[in-house]
Design goal:
Elements: E1 2-7, H1 15-18, H2 20-27, E2 32-37, E3 50-51, E4 61-62, H3 64-72, E5 79-90, H4 93-99, E6 104-108, H5 117-123, E7 126-129, H6 139-150, H7 162-165, E8 183-184, E9 187-188, H8 198-216, H9 218-223, H10 230-243
Parallel strand pairs: 1-2, 1-6, 5-6, 5-7
Antiparallel strand pairs: 3-4, 8-9
Helix pairs in contact: 3-5, 4-6, 8-10
């Protein structure tokens, strides 16, 4: 899988090449990452990439002709052009998994007041938001998308089951994790996790998933309610009833 970022700040993506899971995946050629410097396609002697908004208003708008020139330098028949924007569909694990099946994602990283709307309407295939807040540019959202999507590319994670058991993969938060020492600050590891009975451990982790999701993200529970067993639904209802006392 190939990621291409179109950005005014290509250096913001360099840490991905040097540290962590994504760095290892790049070195093993499981994924590819290249950056296009939008400034190189600017107009005039000063390589201008933006201009004042038509009709007045705050900020500067990235020019459609400059954005297209940069995009066209890497656009292929199988490319999916993505822009991060508050207008977009909220990014989640399901979207990351779907994107991981694509061959080439081009991530257009906006700045200032964003891209000219004509460029968006004509060339952008998918608008994505990573949440209801504003950032200085599209680079940080693009980093999140690259990281989350890469985890679903076969071979990127050392343990192929890791992504399956992550939070959100079954619609629930992940169960809490523990390791040595067995006793820390008078807090023990739950005994059931030390006894070696895999059936009981699986049941315990499932109940912990349900409990932590019911308490912290009831919206997620409601989203998978019909997939829960009647026993699990009763368990969650008891948690909510106790919480609301």
């Amino acid at each position: 899988m190939r990621f291409t970022t179109v950005t005014l700040f290509p250096e913001m993506f360099e840490p991905l090449r040097s540290e962590g899971v994504i760095s290892r995946a790049l070195k093993r050629n499981l994924i590819q990452l290249d950056t296009v410097d939008l400034r190189q396609f600017g107009t005039g002697p000063h390589k201008q990439v933006d201009d004042k908004p038509a009709g007045g208003g705050d900020g500067m708008v990235l020019r459609a002709d400059v954005a297209f020139a940069a995009l066209n330098s890497v656009l292929q028949a199988d490319s999916i052009v993505v822009m991060t924007s508050p207008h977009g569909k909220v990014f989640d694990s399901s979207m990351a998994k779907n994107l991981s099946e694509k061959k080439h994602l081009i991530l257009m990283c906006g700045r200032y007041a964003g891209f000219d709307q004509r460029f968006i309407e004509k060339h952008v295939n998918l608008n994505i938001s990573i949440g209801d807040f504003i950032l200085s540019g599209g680079e940080l959202p693009a980093l999140c998308i690259i990281d989350a999507t890469s985890r679903f590319v076969p071979g990127v994670l050392g343990n192929e089951k890791s992504a399956i058991h992550d939070s959100f993969e079954d619609g629930l938060l992940e169960a809490p994790s523990y390791t040595k020492p067995n006793l820390y600050d008078d807090l023990p590891i739950p005994q059931i996790l030390l006894e070696g009975n895999h059936t009981l451990m699986t049941q315990y982790k499932r109940s912990e998933q349900l409990k932590i999701t019911a308490i912290h993200r009831p919206d997620l529970i409601l989203g998978v309610w019909q997939k829960l067993s009647k026993q699990e639904q009763n368990f969650v209802e008891k948690i909510w009833k106790h919480k609301n006392k």
